[in-house]
Amino acid sequence: MTAPLRLAAAVLASLALSLALNTPSSPATTPLTPDRLEQEAARALETTRAVSVHIHVRDRRHTVEAGAGESALGTGRPVPDGAHFRAASVTKSFVAATVLHLAAERRLSLDDTVEHWLPGLVRGHGNDGRRITVRHLLQHTSGLHDYDSTELTGRTAPDFERHRLDHIDPEHLVAAALRHAPDFPPANPGDPEPRWSYSNTGYHLLGAIIEKATGRPWAEEVQARIVRRLGLRGTRVPGDDPYLPEPYAHTYHRFSGSGGYTDTTVRNMAWAGAAGALVSTSRDLDRFFTALLTGELLPPRELAAMRGTVPSNAEHQRFTPGMRYGLGLMRQPLSCGGSRWGHHGDLEGTFVRTGVTADGSRAVVVTANGRTTDDTHLLTTEKALQGIIDRLLCRP
């Protein structure tokens, strides 16, 4: 073949490859657009009958956000990108990462007992802090009874309105939980599949252990070791401040016996403490979980410990099939293979769902506002939100 013919062939081959890469049927070049993501949010809104749904997606350096519904009922205003929200139990992943950071510094050990750090606190009614370790608390294998948060704000809309601004110390919740017998004995190191039961009580104890080990409140340690380090400008522990920073979308809850939604946006969350008090944004949660899973926050040994999982119980499997729990970290299989990592957050009026691939290359954060107490509706919503994460993380 002559030089001109070789050049022409090369140009044609290059053109053919370019056309193939840019054809709509080629999965490699169908970038997710705000319009397409908005359609995904709109479908979820219709399925869940929520007030609003917002989705944040990152594929390596390409980030898209979109939402559907209203940021406040009756206003027609869309959900803003970059909105602040109550992260609820996603707080546990921040607290767990802080504990593991302290373990890496040898300030504490995962095998330390609760009694070692909080002598005499966990005693009575069958509870024994000498048998419960830091690892047990992190992994929800301690057997400690979980308090019922509805005892704080009540189960009805009038109860919530009366108590929404009350200050309740987490110590009060721990004391209430310890008046109950444990759900089961703490797991033994040799147990092939230890028993598991979600316990906010354990994370309140972890907050107290962080303070004992460092001499500073858990919130200050989270702020210093994670929030400032990663530049999470939208993340904070609000204390008694009942208001969300602008911008935000309102949260709504349909309490049992109520004919309509109650706006649950303004509330004092000091009671949630190390188990769920954090306020954050989708971008910040993406940044945090990506930094965590890629080894930016923890040394390899501590990250491996955090990712060592056990199966959750039947109740959680019903809502999150295949879920396994590490040390403050959830893992769920993806339909395309592999797993998503992250943590759920649930509160009266809102859902927060996160999913990050093991290598940190893709991340999805979904928030939905408008919640009920009906189990069937909760299950429908759960399937819809987890379906979004699965589709977007598995997208070619």
Textual characterization of the structure:
Mean pLDDT is about 90; it is low at about 1-30. This protein has a single domain, classed as 3-Layer(aba) Sandwich (Beta-lactamase). The radius of gyration is 23 Å and the shape is globular. Strands 1, 2, 9, 10, 11, 12, 13, 14 and 15 form a nine-stranded antiparallel β-sheet that branches. Strands 7-6-16 form a three-stranded mixed β-sheet. The chain contains 15 helices and 16 strands. A hairpin with a 5-residue loop joins strand 11 (about 330-335) and strand 12. The chain has helices at about 5-20, 35-50, 90-105, 115, 135-140, 150-155, 155-165, 170-180, 200-215, 220-230, 275, 280-295, 300-305, 315-320, 375-395; strands spanning about 50-60, 60-70, 85, 125, 125-130, 250-255, 260-265, 280, 310, 325, 330-335, 340, 345, 350-355, 360-370, 370. The longest helix is centred in the first third of the chain and has 20 residues, at about 5-20. Helices cover about 40% and strands about 15% of the residues. The chain is of the alpha+beta class.
Which helices and strands, and how do they pair?
Layout: H1 3-22, H2 34-48, E1 52-59, E2 62-69, E3 84-86, H3 91-104, H4 114-117, E4 123-124, E5 127-128, H5 134-139, H6 150-153, H7 157-163, H8 170-178, H9 200-214, H10 218-230, E6 252-254, E7 262-263, H11 273-276, E8 279-281, H12 282-293, H13 300-306, E9 310-311, H14 314-319, E10 324-325, E11 330-333, E12 339-342, E13 345-347, E14 350-357, E15 362-369, E16 371-372, H15 375-394
Parallel strand pairs: 6-16
Antiparallel strand pairs: 1-2, 1-15, 3-8, 4-5, 6-7, 9-10, 10-11, 11-12, 12-14, 13-14, 14-15
